[in-house]
Each structure stands twice: as C-alpha cells, then as structure tokens.
Amino acid sequence: xxxxxxxxxxxxxxxxxxxxxxxxxxxxxxxxxxxxxxxxxxxxxxxxxxxxxxxxxxxxxxxxxxxxxxxxxxxxxxxxxxxxxxxxxxxxxxxxxxxxxxxxxxxxxxxxxxxxxxxxxxxxxxxxxxxxxxxxxxxxxxxxxxxxxxxxxxxxxxxxxxxxxxxxxxxxxxxxxxxxxxxxxxxxxxxxxxxxxxxxxxxxxxxxxxxxxxxxxxxxxxxxxxxxxxxxxxxxxxxxxxxxxxxxxxxxxxxxxxx
Length: 259
Fold this sequence. Notes:
This protein is α/β, with parallel strands linked by helices. It contains twelve helices and eight strands.
C-alpha cells in the first residue's frame, strides 16, 4: 500500500504511480448482490455502492472513503457493522477505481467526494457522516472542510496528520519534497471543523504509525474522542474491532453516548 510510495524517490508526477493503486475492474452486479451491495446512485453512472439490507429506523447516512488499495466492493464489513446500528452505508468509489473514469489525485478525489455528498444529502436528507480509512481519512477531512456544516460527524480509521509528515519518516526530506504534489493535510483541513470527530488508531500500525493519528487528534479544536485498537495493525484492525466499539464510536459521533 503506502509503503512503496514512501520508500521510493521520484519526480513529482510519479507520486501517482506509488500512492494510488487503482483497479480498473468493475464489479459485477452478481458479485455485489452476494455481499448485500448495489451500484449507487445507478448502475449506468455509479459513484459508489449502497447496502441493500432492509432495516428499521435510519439514523443517518455514512459515506465511506476507503484506503488506496482495492476497491469499494471489498469493504462490505462497513455496512455489515453500521447497518445493524441503524445507519445507511454508501461505499464511495474513487475515480479510476472499480471501473470508474476520471483522474487520479487529491483535487479530483475531493471534488468527486463533494458531489457524492451532495447527491446523498439531496436523496436522503438527515444526518450525513463521513468515514475514512487510511488515505480515505484525508479525503474525508478535505471534503468535510469544504462541505462545512452539512457533515454531522467524522469517523477516521488509521489516519495520518499530513502526508508530508508521514513521507518524511520513510524518505529523506530532500527526496520527498520534489515528489509531493498532493498534500492531504488533515490538520489544516480540520482546524475549522465544528462537528464531532472519532479517531481510531491501530496500536501496531507500521504503515501509518499511530503517532500520526495522535498528532492529528491533538490538533483537533472541536469535540473529539480517540480509540486505540490493541494489537491491531494497519490491515487487520477490521478483524479486531468489536461490535461494542463500533457502537461506542457511532454513539459518540451521533451525540448519543451516555455521560
């Protein structure tokens, strides 16, 4: 995932080769149906996937921005955990991933995220939450910054503070600076955000060390809470987090936790 990008110096445009790992394959409708998912908002021009499981009262809509590897269709564990808690889940897909067109890069991804948020808000109304995973945390942070009060809360799994800060740990600064085009500066993007933010770090993360999640958390000026998943690393936390923690996280960002 991020390790390749962070270990290799290259000229500016080559960051896309190392940071992004788009899969051109579009998932089939049958593949999605087996996982309780469907194209959203339509199969003809989809920009994400939606859970199809029926539930009772819907508390709000969670839009998920996944990490830089794989595609949205592989993230069925999000609706699997959020659905029983009463949340509609949209798995946003990035341009150039999952058979979608468009361009790679921070500007394209944030613009695309804002359009996804707009459509979800217009379609469903109610509370909109953004959930990020790794690189997706930075996309969610930038989108929340631009969307403003329209975002009720943020859930950030294994986030970094800034991409530059993370890269400096792996590559000498003089080699990092020329390659950096996308900034993904979540500290800056969230400095004005007023909603609740849940930060979830993986104790043994060696790709985005938990120190970056801590730095981001410490910088947040608004209401916030952090969880550390003991024994978890960057890729296996989904098997370690339990349903109680999922509920605690969503109760917090939704304002329902017990004092």
